[in-house]
Amino acid sequence: MASKLIYTTDRGLYCEAGDFYIDPWRPVERAVITHAHSDHARWGSRNYLCADPGAKVLRHRVGNEGEIQGVPYGQPVSINDTTVSFHPAGHILGSAQVRVERKGEVWAVSGDYKLDEDPTCAPWEPVKCHTFITESTFGLPIYTWSSNEDLFTDINTWWEKNKRDGKSSLLLAYALGKAQRLMMGVDTSIGPIYTHGAVATMNQIYDNSGVKLPRSTRLSTMPKGTKYAGALILAPPSAYGTPWQRQLNPVSAAFASGWMRVRGIRRRRSLDKGFPVSDHCDWPSLLKAVQLTGAENILVTHGYSQILVRYLRDQGLNADTLSTQFEGEESDGSSEVHE
Ligand SMILES: [Zn+2]
Ligand SMILES: [Zn+2]
Fold first, then answer.
1. pLDDT (tens digit per residue) in 139-151
2. Distance CA 96, CA 117 (A)
3. Is the bond into 141 cis (omega within 30 degrees of 0)?
4. Is the pLDDT reported for residue 153 higher than 80?
5. Contact residues for 70 (Cβ-Cβ < 8 A; gap 6+)
6. Cα–ligand 2 centroid distance for 332 (angstroms)
7. What's the CA-to-centroid distance between 38 and ligand 1, angstroms?
8. Residue 165 alpha carbon to ligand 1 centre in Å
9. How far away, in angstroms, is 323 Cα from ligand 2 center?
10. Which residues lie below 8 Å from residue 290, measured CB to CB, with a gap of 6+?
11. Taking Cα atoms as reference points, which of 93, 116, 228, 265 lies closest to residue 174?
């Protein structure tokens, strides 16, 4: 490889030929953003460029400072000596892979992504490139997700059983992305849906961005003493075990997270139920994605990067780790990163 088109600096992933950063972790002049989760979209930069459908979520994330320019998926933008375009990453609303081209050399920075269907965002598309930068949050062969059909059958069955038992169903999920995806998939004929404020705020932004979610009510607007038996309540993981949760009693609590694939984690948190579902790739999807890009160079960031690198090298690819400050899905749910 000649001089690298994109490399890591103390401020983040930098493209010198274009003089911009991708998902910088410190304020910069020009930030190109893959998506609005807080480990990728930080406040304080002067100019932000993102995929158009994610502009409103990004505004919410970074606050009022800084210019935000949304670009439709697939539309090329010239930045100095490079051509940049955004391509759906299938992760959350507006999430994108950033394609950077300079004199025929193409790199793709995938941010966070998944291949599974999600009606709240545009589906992942392979970006043909020479160098592919991928995450590896769930880059271990034990991580495989069930189909949406099986997942939602499980969630609906749990909800119905709680209803029969006179309990409310508290479903803990990241407020940005996961909560909306779950709301879209559940059987709304079972009962009413209520939301924690953090989820309600994001739902409003999704609504403003044109994503039609099923009807739900912000829990805080309900009169004191309301009974929630039979209802489904969407809340961020940080709400678990707090005084807020008491109003839902008797309650069955479930956490929707890729980490629920590992039983011990659910047991340690004394949850009633865990649904293994993630907005990140499982192991088979990571391998499939890498293959579909046709890239000969793979740079692996956050997650089980060493393991994925070793596997890809065995497949004859030039794979290496790339150290970044991005974070995966938090196993204890305490982090606000993917809220
Ligand atoms: Zn993310
Ligand atoms: Zn991330």
1. 999 999 999 999 9
2. 15
3. no
4. yes
5. 50, 51, 52, 53, 54, 55
6. 15
7. 8
8. 36
9. 13
10. 132, 134, 298, 312, 317
11. 93
The alpha carbon of 175 and the centre of ligand 2 are apart by a number of angstroms equal to 14
> Is the pLDDT reported for residue 336 higher than 60?
no
Distance 145 CA to ligand 2 centre (A): 18
How far does residue 223's CA lie from ligand 2's centre (Å)?
37
**Closest to 312 (Cα-Cα) out of 287, 292, 336:** 287
Q: How confident is the model at residue 323 (pLDDT cuts 50, 70, 90)?
A: confident
Extract the tokens encoding 205. Answer: 């932004």
Q: Of 2, 248, 28, nearest to 14 (Cα)?
A: 28
Which residue ranges form the domains of the chain, and what is each CATH number? 7-142+279-321 (3.60.15.10), 148-275 (3.40.50.10890)
Note the ligand closest to the C-alpha atom of 36: 1
- Tell me which ligand sits closest to the C-alpha of residue 330: 2
